[in-house]
Amino acid sequence: MYAKLEQYGYVLPALSGVLLVLTFHPFDFWPLGFVALMPLFYFITAFPGRPAWRTFWGGFITGGLFAFALSYFTLIQFHWLPGAYLFAGAVRLLVVPITLLSGALVGLLSVVVYRAFYSRSIFLNALLAAAVYTAAELLLQRLFGGYYLATLAYAAVPLPPLLSLAALGGAPLLSFFVAWINGFLTEALIAWRTRPQALARAAAASAALFLVVFLPNYIYLHRPLAAQKTLSVAVLQAASRGTIAFGTQKNGVFFWSMGQRLAQAAATAPDLLIYPFSPVEGALYRSQAPAFNKEVLVASEQSVARFLAGTLPASTTLMTWNNLYADGSFYNEYELWRGGRVVSEYQKRELFAFMDYTPRWAQKFGLFSTPFDVTPGTPDNRLVLDGVPLGDLMCSELHHTSLARSEARRAPLIIAVGSEAMFEDDVASAFSLKAAQLRAAENDLPVVRGNILGPSGIIDRFGVLTAYAPAGTAGAIAGEVALTAPRQTLYNRLGDSIIWVVLCGILASAWYTRSRAKTLR
Questions:
Q1: CA 2 and chain centroid, separation
Q2: Which residue of 296, 315, 375, 458 sits 20 to 30 Å from the alpha carbon of 358, by its own alpha carbon?
Q3: 190 vs 194: CA distance, rounded Å
Q4: C-alpha dist (Å) from residue 312 to 184, 261, 315, 437
């Protein structure tokens, strides 16, 4: 059978690439993630006499095909400001280096690590497969600045019990577990006829290891916790870009056609009403208007406050996400409005290159991507609602796990409002909602994800959606959020260092086992 499969060349690695593509959005056949890597692992391990260069190209095909499809679905659909056509073109061309880098890394690790450390231990080989794939993910995530949409952990998000593992080792541990299942099934396929007893022992050891890791954590997380406060939250959403309404200011008076929808949503008396976008197309200004002032682009903060005071009940707290011009600088900001004034604000701290500002080196080449550069907020600026501190993750900050961990230590709820409106469809937005679910599960606290075009959701501390609005639907979602005292998870305390220890331990064990086997020959 092995020899017959060998005749088909690189069909098996290509099949793994296709299955990975189908696992993710927009197809979302997430159960395929638990078997998608099997053809690649089989290709690598079932033919030990194959030249190393063929193994490399097998891994390259799997990683490259997966990266190409996923980046194509996102980057090719990228659009930006009309004047930044060079920048938009450069972003679309990133499909090429992303494909080459991802393929080369998977291929290289397949040869150098997997082939070099592979032994006769079924149990250890399955762990080795998971370690190699997870290491590739972690390295690619570092290369892409944390904004990595291809983590295999997303396949586990629809399974709440499995999602609880994120509290131990974050998204990397979930990816490891999904890859581990792939690795064990591959080993079982190879050994079920020739080594049934060894396979049974490996299955028992694997089940025991999983239960030892899973059960204490699951029991700990599901202990009853007394809610210190219950917060009602509502999030507004638009159906399409054409239905996003911006306000205008004329003779110092601000008008916004969203007033009626805001008043209707406020009629349900939520503690926090979130409009996950800006009242104006450009920026609000605090005292003096910025230089590019046009009536359609800017409005004074005072005029917006007056409009909201005449539209919303005095008890309603509205949150908007907008640019603010103050003291000669632009800020990307959350603002809480109540009673005709701003009662709290948060300014984005971790800026994303080319989205929030144009790097100096790019400016030298005339590759401008922003009409103005955003200034980062101070580390201690935070939203506070009626004395309750809110964790703040603005747009791309959602993908900064270290920032999420620091916010979870000081707040019982994270607000994660953002938008991927620069992409033609909802692929990137769907990944961001899953990322919000992971941040909740990693830190054992609820997260509210707002997106003007959707999908939006209210997520409990286990990472489960309790309210949801799909992309392309207009309306509002609402829900009650139970706030408990912040409780640190293991991942919150130690971050990715946990998974790196696990990976290094597996590699060391695999190296020792293989070296010992060579010595005994």
A1: 39
A2: 296
A3: 8
A4: 58, 10, 8, 31
